[in-house]
Write a structure and sequence with these properties.
mainly beta; 4-stranded antiparallel β-sheet; 1 helix; 4% helix; globular
Amino acid sequence: MIIHSHSLSLPPFRLFPPPVIVVLLALFFLPACTPLRGTGDLGIVIERATGGIQIVETSDKSSLFQVAGLGDLSHASAVYSRDERFAYIFGRDGGLSKLDVLTGEVVKRVVQGGNAIGGAISQDGSLVAVSNYTPGGVRVFDAVTLELVADIPAIGADGERSKVVGLVDIPGQRFVFSLFDAGEIWIADLKNPQEPQIQKFLDVGSKPYDALVSGDGRHYIAGLFGEDGLVLLDLWQPEKGVQRILDGYGKGEKKLPVYKMPHLEGWAMAGDLAFLPAIGRHEVLVVRTGTWEEVARIPLQGQPVFAMARPDGRQVWVNFAYPKNDAIQVIDTTSLKVVKTLKPGKGIMHMEFTPRGEHVWVSVRDLDRVEVYHTDRMERIATLPAEKPSGIFFSSRAHRTGL
């Protein structure tokens, strides 16, 4: 920034001793030399093919930094520190990277496992947990230093090590996750990270593949790949055990090939309704959260991957597996009908709403771009170039349980 001295009105420095003048000059020029900004409108876009990310800002819809060298980001996700300054990026190769979103610098990177599948950050922001396929288990790190503080091997009741999926944070410095191979759900209490306390729920169902937790941290729902249905754990009353919901939702109907597993973490909630993508089916299941009984099925054009609610719950946006992965359908949550079909292009990987939901950002992998839509008008308002973009994660996630 160029500062024109004739345009500045300096304070009467001659009235102060030299040390005070130095401080006053520093304070006077600091705002001009280092513009301050907040982080509430920042986010990252994963560029999976290059192992890099873009740091973006949503106010002017622009890219601020390009960061490379973060390893295999083919199934990457991210969480944020509670001050929204640092993003923790979980790579498929087991890499855990801490990124300063204000400067674009990688603060630290560790490779903590051989094959990882996401992570979570504790309620107070002091611990970052990573779920691993290889070796199966959860590893927990100090959020400041990324030093390992706890290692929880996922050894099921059968004595075998299991892949871990569906890892989320819940209140009380706890994490919940599912054991894919063992068919179990565990709650890990990390109030004392040196001695994690584990509560196990056995025989919950066949192959839990992903999970979500409600925004209040009360209900943990895991989808089952090995059978029709989902399982629910009330975390306020875990002593009641695991409850089956939507049991046999595909019973009596022909099974379709599954082109891509749906992701549950989007957690579409609207009032007392939850919208859940059904495995291999061309529909979203609607469940009333008080009773957890099915109240409707909404037919869609293909197999849903993400069903994500706008922050006010008025709409649910859905993307799809191949071969219908060029479209998005928008569901009105009062009529329970599809009100709009958009065609951004082939390879729609992810959607992310701005904090109050006026816009949604959409990654379109095969066209190497991110598109921004106005959610009321349901029309495109901006396009940003990005190399094979996948996940989009905004800093507002820092203040939401389970994200």
